[in-house]
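Ticket #4471: structure export looks truncated?
Reporter: QA, pipeline team
Priority: medium

Steps to reproduce: submit the single chain below to the structure queue and open the exported record.
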Amino acid sequence: MKNLIIYYFIILIPLPVLVWLAFINKTNCFVILLLFYALVYRPIIDGYRLIEKGVISKKGFWKLFIPFWSIKWFKELYFLKAHNSV
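Actual output as written to the record:
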């Protein structure tokens, strides 16, 4: 995920499904998938990007499952291009 546009695309892939579930009033499915997206999918994707950029180590990957922990690296995740791999 060295390219920032690819990263944005990967984090936005599940959103059309969530919007569709919200419009067809499948509340239970929507809530379950929204929680999965926020608590599992995004920490994994953000963790791989931060590891690839050399910002965190593989040992620190688990910390991204703590809510709001990735805010610490907001600028690196969303605005800065990837550095050379470590």
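Status: closed, not a bug. The export was complete when the record was re-opened. Leaving a note from the reviewer for reference: The chain has one domain: 4-78.
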